Hints:
mainly alpha, transmembrane helix, EamA_dom, transmembrane
Amino acid sequence: MWEMVWPILLVILSNTIYNICTKSTPGNVNAFGTLMITYITAAILTAIIFVFLVKPENVMVELSHVNWTSVVLGIAIVGLELAYIFAFRAGWKVSSASIVANIGLAIVLVFVGAILYGENITLKQLGGIFICAVGLFLINMG
């Protein structure tokens, strides 16, 4: 059970910190400059943890397993970070930007799951999509 819970708790904690930091990024700082420092910090931390967890003789073996997904994920993360910085600079509230983005993401991923991974779209999911669409409407009315 714990192996199912702790990753979600980490997502919630990390996303909370992420949104606070992104919303608090000064408006006068270049978005790419702040992301550069962010990714240098992340790269250093990741390298330290990687080297700590992998025996030195296995570092290259482990890195040889990396494929195209790491590069595309890096590109996607930059897009995600830039989008949130610019969304907050455009006036989105921290309480609504993430929920609107994540509802939209959830709706898209239902179809991605069906198209790319053969997952079934159930009536419950279609009902959920409808409820999410109503929620998006209500959130953006005010």
